[in-house]
Fold this protein.
Amino acid sequence: MSFGMSLVAIGWEPEIRGILTVIIGFVVLCGSVYLLLGTNIGARLGFLVALTALAGWMALMGSVWWIYGIGLRGPDPSWEPVPGATVLQDSQALVAGGALSGLPAIPEDATATENALIVNEQFIEEGWVTLDPASPGFGQAQAAASVYLEEEGAFAAGQYQITEVFDTGGERWPKINDSLDFLAFFHTPHYVVAEASTVEPTRTEPGRAPATPVIDESRQRVYVYMIRDLGAVRQPATVLTIGGGAIFLALCYLLHRRDRILRENLAMPIETTEPTPVEATTSADEAREPVGAST
């Protein structure tokens, strides 16, 4: 029973099997290289060379990821809610939330549609740009605004439609001119305001296409105020490149220092000592004994 449970745990796809695959691949790749180096140039020097090669390879891989924005990626850019002023229920809340600096006098008998037109004109006067509904920016803002509207409980799904999106900010700097913006790493804050209109309830019939939503002109528009988070897509690749490069340079310095010390030691002269002569010691009787006396 325990053996079967162990096999099931190892074969579990999401975590255990993936972790084991990475560990085995790392051990086989790095271990085989270290085995070849260790058997040829020694265990300690082989480990240092293998570790240097691994750090250099990581720095090169990180630099490619950094340039093209691929590989290990950080969070993507997204529209984040403006704290305390995300879902604005009326036009006066736009001024209180900081989206608009002010509003012209709105007649008391103005309808919701006339009120929305006055607000739209005020956005344009203050430098906001109306996005084309077919543009990618409109679609991204629409998707983010829908999430916040439903999270805040302002609308349920199918009860509203994003009719306008106003955009401002987001310029890059510093720039020499419009064509030389290679060093424009900084951005001004980028804001959008999405206008949500209530739609009239529609009946759906089986087998027929859903009816086109109709805006309820008697209901007040609701606005979603968002700020652009530029994300950090290249941050992991940047850390990998800088970290791997620093480790690679440090290990290269250690290898260079070892070779320099080795050359200095090999260039030193070998000290030789002359052997001390051994004096022959003979007794007096042996010295007086004539040659051949023993025979």
User: Anything to note?
Assistant: The mean pLDDT is 88. The two ends are 96 Å apart (CA to CA).
